[in-house]
Amino acid sequence: MGKIAVSGLVVAVGLGVVGLLLIILSAKKLNSYELGIKYDNIAKTLGNYVNREGLHFGPPGFSFIIFPSVYKTMEFKDISCLNKDGVVIDVDVSYQFKANPLHMKFLVDQFQSFDGYKKVLFASGKSAVHDSCANFSTTEFQTDRGKFQERLRETMRNYCEYLHCELNDLQVNSVQRPLQFESAVKDKEAAKENIRVAENERPRLLLQAETELEQAKKQAEIIFNNAQTQAKIIKMKAETEAESLRYQYEKDLEVYKKVKESQGLDNEALISYMTIRAISESKNDINLALKSPAKTSYSSITD
């Protein structure tokens, strides 16, 4: 009887341990940021319901195929695409997404896991980038970058809706154009800036040139007026001196004429007389070989 009791106790304990193990193997926990569908690893069957956070029970050894319940970020680094001009553009894009819980069983049937789902999303996202890039010219990527981002967001949302993905927001982090084009754009902008500076400087330079021209005109006018004044002064001085000499010559002529007439001298005698007068009035000794001068009386000269 004792042996039977011991055997029963062992069996009971064994069943309890097995039951406990089954309970442990049949319980799985989901975190607050997870959604899961049960998968029976033994029967190879997929559950029909989406489970949220908490402790869940299922067939022994089952597992959850888990999808995030919060938005995740998908990044597209340095994707090269051809724009409307046929120029290669490198873009860096990211967006936030999560799978639609209402279609989670369908997504698991199609893509097996969240990793498989992300691969398809990434491929469709690249297609959306290429489609959007082809609608913009090289210049529009510079001037209408916001418009490109809106177009890409709308295209990406259409792709996501087809794949039962909820897109929250999208960011275009960078747009890189070819180096030669960037250099040409910089040169063009530099030329525009130089033109703008020149246009701004033009009024000042014109005013400066006009001021210098007016100053030069005034200086030339001053020089011209001074020259005219000096010329008038020189002319008046010359005229005065000429008049003075003319008057002096007339007086001398009258005296010599009077002497010639009063003394009955001819021209030669008059010249001799004038020479003697010049010599006599000179303070220095003078040696000349002349004919005897005409003889005149003192009274005839002074009359």
Automatic annotation (TrEMBL):
- One Pfam family name from the record? Band_7
The UniProt record lists the Band domain at: 31-219
Residue stretches spanning the membrane: 6-25
Q: One GO cellular component from the entry?
A: mitochondrial inner membrane
Where does the protein end up? Mitochondrion inner membrane
Its principal location?
A: mitochondrion
Q: Which residues form a coiled coil?
A: 181-226
**Protein family (similarity comment):** Belongs to the prohibitin family.
Q: What is this protein called?
A: Prohibitin
Per the UniProt entry, what species is this protein from, by scientific name? Answer: Brachionus calyciflorus
